[in-house]
Amino acid sequence: MCRVYVATRIKDIPAECKLTHEPIDGWAWVECGDLGALLRDIARGLLGGPGEPVATPKGLVDPLELSEDTVCEPRLDGVFWIYVSGRDFGGLFELGAVRVEWRVGWRFAKAEFKGGRVSDLLARGYVPIVWNLRAVRGTPSE
């Protein structure tokens, strides 16, 4: 059994899962004891909603198509925007980033990862943005 992590729209306080950070434009990563707990919170209408996808490092996924392979201790491989709340962007290198781009005034860093564990980033206050970046206010335009 593993810890399950997904990013989803937050409708109410989850019953079985826990928020790992304050929502960012309505989205947040949740940690659940298993896939069943996540699906029960979605069914209760606390997370996501009918027909709304959840987000993983591999992209948006229909909750009915989730498997433990996609949500069990997910890892970041590729380039992601990372929200940083009062933290040093340099700490991303300790967590699997191989390249980080940041500019004065940005609330986000653009980082390339090779196997960075989502749970480790969240534990240190870094929030990987895996949902629609255009929906997040304050992200730099590319």
Compact overview of the structure:
With 142 residues, the chain is mainly β. The protein has three helices and nine strands. The longest helix has 9 residues.
Description of the molecule:
The strands form 3 sheets. Strands 7-8-6-9 form a 4-stranded antiparallel sheet. A 3-stranded antiparallel sheet has the order 1-3-2. The chain has 3 helices and 9 strands, in the order E-E-E-H-E-E-H-E-E-E-H-E. A hairpin with a 6-residue loop joins strand 7 and strand 8 (108-117). The chain has 142 residues and is mainly beta. The radius of gyration is 14 Å and the shape is globular. The mean pLDDT is 87.
Helix content: 10-25%
- Lateral arrangement of strands in the main beta sheet: 7-8-6-9
**How many strand segments?**
9
Average pLDDT, to the nearest integer?
87
Q: Main beta sheet, described?
A: 4 strands, antiparallel
Please give the count of helices.
3
Distance between the termini: 39 Å
Give the strand content.
25-35%
Radius of gyration: 14 Å
Q: Rough shape?
A: globular
Runs in which pLDDT lies below 50 for 5 or more consecutive residues are none
Could you spell the SSE succession in H and E letters? Answer: EEEHEEHEEEHE
Q: What structural class do you assign from the helix and strand content?
A: mainly beta
